[in-house]
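Handout, page 2. Input:
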Amino acid sequence: EVQLVESGGGLVQAGGSLRLSCAASGFTFDDYAIGWFRQAPGKEREGVSCISNVDGSTEYADSVKGRFTISSDTAKNTVYLQMNNLKPEDTAVYYCAAGLGVHPAVVVKYGYGLDYWGEGTAVTVST
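Output:
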């Protein structure tokens, strides 16, 4: 059974940090790109970041560049999203998703090529 399980969300003050985790199972992790998406209340889902476990390439949305860092631990089948200098506009439910062999830029910009999704973890950034 394929599973993507997000964790690490919570409430943080503006300027603070959180680290989200996406634990994967049930598929060949090394063959997939893992992306992070977010959806704020009343807004469309947007791509945040993605990493390819095939070649290590990464992609970030302009809104998070320089603040968020994505990484992958293939020994643990887990992808992390380190979020620093959080802003109230980062408040959203964050989801991870996996796509077979897809390029991270395609994932973040178009949300294309994803096969599996997690259930999400909520992040709230207070002023």
